[in-house]
Amino acid sequence: RFGSAGTRGLSRPSVSPSEPSRRRRFSRCPRPSAMSPCRAGRVLGPAAAAALLLAGGVEGQAWPVCQEQNTVIRNAGRALFTNLQGFGATVGCFQDDCQNTDKFVASSIESCTKVCLSLPECEFWVWGQEEGEQKCWFRLGDDGREAGEGWIAGAKSCHPDGQQAMVMGNDGCWVEGFNYDTCCDPKFGPSGNAQCWDGVFNYDRCCFPKDEL
């Protein structure tokens, strides 16, 4: 399963008890560098070097080089469940509830980066396909990182130049002290806080962004 209960086809492969030990002997690293698979002056073995490059080989690079191709970050207890409806998520959410989900159907990979940038707790985003639909997933950490053909992952810092964090809902509504939390929080029910609305402002206009993801 990927991210949450109820989704299919993305279970994490089990590790055979007979798998050889991952421990490796280290030799000295003659000339350590930022791009060399060395740590503390020692050369890592082939498996450890590959893992290191997978985890951090594109760190600090600009878009789109920072994208981690053929990499997926599975749940591993680090899925970020939050209200994505306020950012424009409407379909493909966990149990069809976009107010408490770690994923949604998106039109482009830039939707993943934009939403992750807007969520204080988001550390990584994932772009991939589930049941024939392109989706974004959001993670608190990369504990579930593994190879996955066709998947793309990235850190919060991996986004197009100039991309800015979003404001939840329609920012044209948020004047005179009103904001998404005071008017659209799920605790107010399906129509939001009635004290926020009048003949001009209403739930449908204000609690969804002007532009779709």
Describe the structure.
14% of the residues lie in helices and 20% in strands. It contains 4 helices and 8 strands; from the N terminus they run E-E-E-H-E-E-H-E-E-E-H-H. It has helices at 46-56, 109-118, 180-184, 203-206; strands at residues 27-28, 38-39, 42-43, 68-74, 103-105, 124-130, 133-139, 144-155. The strands form 2 sheets. Strands 4-8-6-7-5 form a 5-stranded antiparallel β-sheet, with helices on one face. Strands 1-3-2 form a 3-stranded antiparallel β-sheet, with no helix packed on it. Strand 6 and strand 7 (133-139) form a beta hairpin. The longest helix is centred in the first third of the chain and has 11 residues, at 46-56. The two termini are 25 Å apart.
Shape: elongated
For the biggest β-sheet, the strand order reads 4-8-6-7-5
| Oligomerization category of the chains in this entry | single chain
pLDDT average, as an integer? 80
Structural class: alpha+beta
Strand count, sense and closure of the main sheet?
5 strands, antiparallel
Low-confidence stretches: 1-44, 46-57
Q: Would you count the extended β strands for me?
A: 8
The whole-angstrom Rg is 21 Å
The helix fraction, in percent, is 10-25%
How far is it from the N-terminal to the C-terminal residue, by CA?
25 Å
Question: What series of H and E elements makes up the topology?
Answer: EEEHEEHEEEHH
Q: What percentage of amino acids are in beta strands?
A: 15-25%
User: Please, how many helices?
Assistant: 4
